[in-house]
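Methods: example folding runs. The two proteins below were folded one after another, and each record is reproduced exactly as written to the output file, sequence line first and structure-token line second.
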Amino acid sequence: MTVLDLFAGPGGWSQGLRELGLTEVGIEIDPAVCATRAAAGHTTIRADVAAYPTTPLLGTVTGLIGSPPCQTFSAAGLRAGNTDLPLCHQALDDLARGRDTRSALRQACSDPRSLLVVEPLRYALALRPDWIALEEVPAVLPLFEHTARLLGAVGYSTWTGVLNAADFGLAQTRRRAFLLASLTRPALPPEPTHADGGTPADLFGDGLPTWRTMLDVLGCPPAVVVTRGNHTTGGSTFPTTGPSWAITGRARSWLLKVGNRPAATRRRLDQPAPTLLFGKALNDVSWIDIDGTPIRRLAVEEAAVLQGFPTDYPWAGSRTKQFEQIGNAVPAPMATAVLGAVLPTAVEVAA
């Protein structure tokens, strides 16, 4: 099968496909992201998705993946995409009618990147792949629902909804909108592999394990509690190389803080991380002490693991670009679960 990955990013979808024994060809314009993909062994066409022609791809694409840039719709950005929503809906309808009005509508947008969300439909209508998997921030769900209706009109079974990556083994409560479509089977969401607090065994199975935590994936050592005789002083020392987890209630643990506001999200090490956002300042994602004292910024390797990548993933570009790539990537465990739900089975491929 030939799988085309629009706005391919550093390789979240690619890693998910590898787990399923498949590869793809990605289209990506950012040179640093392309360098990361090359170092990781992912095939890439460096090009602008919105300008790339579909004609050379006719008859070659059986699967289509797309994660359009989310900055204009993200809660971490200025949300200019909210203003541009009517123009995006119009572009979808125009494409379905065979009219390409993207150029004129792009000029009318508050942020021209907003219109990139319609590109997967342009490719889908031209190439008619067997299956489609799209991902974006939850604010884009109405556009995904509109896209799904248009795909349904040309024969696709579709599903749209919001999934939490923690339900699929990621140590992060990252919520994203998805659109799944198929010409060969009913489009259904993936079955969760984990649950908040876990679920008990019943007649139908063993139940689900609880969400994975930062402690689980980062391998945090316990804090060293200072003791005198039979009494604990309440003090603790922390390793400088990584977060620590207190072994008593009186000792202190590291927490992860995302955001620089007084009400910024804070999570303990025995919880999943919140959604990692690396927008304007890297020190917005930092380790702090239990009393709020800053310890240090989150390391690239830690961010990568919390996003489902291996610790030695070959990130390219500046430190800022590396964090940007991590924050924008589809977590590999999430990609594997979603793709496993939409890919044809071996029996269907043989038929």
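Second run, written to the same file directly after the first:
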Amino acid sequence: MKYRKKPVVVEAVQLTWENWNEVCEFVTLPWGPDGVRGCLSDKGVVSDSGERIGLIIPTLEGEMKAVQGDYIVRGVQGEFYPCKPKIFESTYELVEE
């Protein structure tokens, strides 16, 4: 049997170091000092030299790492998941509002 994916509109943002805070706000990560929302080092993945490598995203399957260039997608039930650029670009197209 073959199945076609239903047309569904999702929200997504591509992770770059320039929009780090925007991505964190998008997924409303609650980590931070004194309960402040936003991304902080405890959920960012950094190299031994202190460079940002990725961000830990809470998903329905547990925590997953998103790296620069990955898209963070909010699914139809409000869940989040990272998606590699080639898969995202072959699966989704921009919706003009």
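Comment on the second run: The mean pLDDT is 80.
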